[in-house]
Amino acid sequence: MTSDFSRRKFLILGSAAFSTSLLLKACTTPAGDEDAATTDDAGADDAAAGGGGGDTIKVGILHSRSGTMAISENTVVDAELLAIEEINAAGGVNGKMIEAIEEDGASDWPTFAEKAKKLIEEDQVAVVFGCWTSASRKAVLPVFEAADHMLWYPVQYEGQECSKNIFYTGAAPNQQIEPAVDWLLENKGDRFFLVGSDYVFPRTANQIITEQVKANGGEIVGEDYLPLGDTEVTPIIAKIQQELPDGGVIFNTLNGDSNVAFFKQLQGAGLGPDKYPVMSVSVAEEEVRVITPEYLTGHYAAWNYFQTVESPENEKWVSDFKAKYGDDRVTNDPMEAAYIMVYLWKQAAEKAGDAYDLEAVRAAAYGETFAAPGGTVTMNPNHHISKTVRIGEIRDDGMFEIVSATDAPVDPIPWNQYVPETKGFACDWSDPEKGGKYEEA
Amino acid sequence: MSLFFNALFNGISVGSVLLIVALGLAIVFGLMGAINLAHGELMMLGAYTTFVVQNVMKPLGEPLFDLYIFVALPLAFVVAAIAGLILEKSVIRHLYGRPLETLLATWGVSLILIQTVRSVNWTLTLAVGILCLLYFGGKWILQKQTDWPRIAGWANSTLLALSIAISIVTGIILSKVDSDTLNREWFSARNVDVTAPAWLRGGLPVGGVQLPYARLFIIALTIVCTIGVYWFLNKSLWGLRIRAVTQNREMSACLGIPTERVDALTFALGSGLAGIAGCAVTLLGSVGPNLGSSYIVDAFMVVVVGGVGKLVGSIVAALVIGSFSYLIGSGTLLLVFGDIPPLASFFEFFATTSMAKVMVFATIVAFLQVRPAGIFPQKGRTIDA
Question: Is the ipTM, as predicted for this complex, more than 0.90?
Fold first, then answer.
């Protein structure tokens, strides 16, 4: 009896599950087909409009559209798509339309490598724009090197890398951290307390800062690291009070959630920006919105670009961006770098003639300049760009008051000159003799 | 003196956060023996409730808005308690006395809760609402109209399958509708901003240091909650029943105590306390879908060290662990033992926040070798289950 019963139950449940899956299929398949059809149409239209070779240029966009990093990387994709749309509207690359193929890295580093392979081998893209975290970049690096392909990377990072197959449009440490330290030494005092998350970027950054502060006659009075995501900062605040009883500079390389806890509790303990100014290198417009200006007003951040940069290019970019994505959106540094890289690539591809001739595009990229929202940028033979460095003070409306900006773009130095292991090394891909890491005479 | 006072206050304030986070778990895990890995996510629900209350009360203007935390606290308790009740009725109830399965199931629940908060919108809410309405409504009608026990076997599964199918189809149709109100995510995956009311943002200057109001508030809240829980367990009728069931389930059942309702109530109480803890930690840290994961280990640590089954154990453990990790992490011990070279270099090595964690855990491991059952061991239901 029991077996009979369970068999009947099994049949019922099985058929129910089957019919549900049929229903789901019936509902989703046409929609999926439709999507595919529209992209095909769009491709065909583009090709027709492009005329020229009757062909499009395929580019890959490889960012995390899901997972923890999606919040940040989605904004970068928005900036890249805006640039591609503008380029296509202006006639494309040598008359050929750009066709963007999006892949989701899903905040998972092996997935990034897999999708990079797919873009290069199956889709045969001319270039890939992608990645955010250093971990994802390190994961795709061997793929791009093995295929001798090309990746453009838009985020500020710790340096100590210079691949022939990657173009870096974010800041190298000497374009963000080092000018920030100089500015602090000049304006805010020479006693530093370093706070960071416990992983490679803050530790490398703090090593650089320590060497630099010492070289300039300052003093590091303390250094502390918080595990990623930890929110108990009482011991750190007690240490700051103990080491800097009369105020001093706090250099903050915390990442993510810990920033919120740090600023909330810093204010509660009475350490205000008047005596304890905090300089952050991973707090931009978007982060200010989440931490809220109530806790941040008066503190500082160092970037190459702020939404408040005053230039006709920036005004146009911000208004175009808001027109496309909504009035409540903000622009920030990595987004600007992403926007720049699409244009720099386009200029190099036009100059090279054939976007698929990677060697020619690479050679054409060196020395290319672009009037970016944050000021004119130039691609160097070391695959990094020269860009203006700015220090911003956080206002109570969540935007940055720019308190300092370099007069001219700062040239990038990928191999750090403060770190003993890489002191004296440089990178130059325009000269086959030199390459990614050579010792400067 | 000021060093001592400062260390005392900071130790207590770190400990009080640990305690308020662990209090709910001390009841759920300590008294009931249910390993609830979704405890952190119940806290997260409390924190999001605070976020919603804050945004709802923003238009009311200054004097009223500043009191939003007092509205948020009871609401966070209620929301988390209801979520806990649903969790108990649907999952935990079937798994009492099977700790491994409970562990896996509640971990799954915690993932579900995280993803729900990330992607919840009106479409999802409507689809789930329709599912519940069809299934429970249909079951209710059938129970009234038909000879339910006879058809229960197949009718139940058919009803469930039909309700699921209909709600999924509705969900898909709704998600195709090009409507911002329907398909806009309520919170999305990004962290949300909770700003403490103005009167909790400063600090009370005492001597050379400033005691943050937010910390004082949490210490006060922890004291109130602890006293409340004590009173409830020791003086109220339901508290008596909870203690009776904890000590001997079968005997309690024989004496007419509705053990299933006691279980549900105990679990809801523990969950509600998690909600309050979630509300409290918004004063200190960020609010995002992952909020729970940064507190869950600490909560279990406190309960295990304190001794499963005794509230007083959790209280002592929270204060001891809090003070200990503060003293090591802040380097205060370094100042005390600065004159003794080997000790000084030892404490200097551990005087960063992440190294202090290592030291604290090492000490706990050593402590549990000596006293495996914690500071205050007691026989609970875990023993006889």
Answer: no
